[in-house]
Amino acid sequence: MARKLWGYAERHLPETRIADYTQALMDLGALLCTRARPACGECPQAKHCLANARGWQAKLPERRPKRTLPVKQLRLVVLRCGDAVLLEQRPPTGVWGGLCSLPEIAADADPIAWARVLGIEARGARRLPLVRHAFSHYRIEAEPMLVHAERLPARAAEPGLLWYNLRAPQQVGLPRPVQRLLATLAEDDDGTDGPLFGAR
What we know:
Layout: H1 2-11, H2 18-32, H3 50-54, E1 71-81, E2 84-89, E3 100-101, E4 104-105, H4 111-117, E5 122-127, E6 131-134, E7 139-149, E8 161-165, H5 176-187
Parallel strand pairs: 1-7
Antiparallel strand pairs: 1-2, 1-4, 2-3, 2-8, 5-7, 6-7
């Protein structure tokens, strides 16, 4: 269809004053052939217009069908110890590149087993409300799984990992959905499940 329309446009292109012709087309669309109230009675091209002849003015231009975006499902680990939540820095490229986010695991992975790989004993896996976020080409539906660490590890976090203080947040770049989730956690009085941030 696009090729056919381009061919039609090229056949009607004048040999001279092309700039004036182009401006006239733009003025016609802006002033007379409008979406809401087309002024067909004043249009110099009305007798050549198929939409005018068939009464289609109110139907054109047709709205593009809403595109259904594919959904990527994933699981986020909300590993909490008192006021501390574990974050990881994402790779420099890709989704949320370079930002700090909640660790991502496979949609069917066990967050408690994941924590144990880091040498952290955790308990009480609980689902939090889904985190939904739309990008230009797809959407994500992330299932945050809240687990509580028995204690903060004595040694510093692994490279690329950060214990984020909910009550006194560090200045780090966070994706907007993660920022909202952390703000909700900060409002939740859940500090009794573990020692306060920095305690051993």
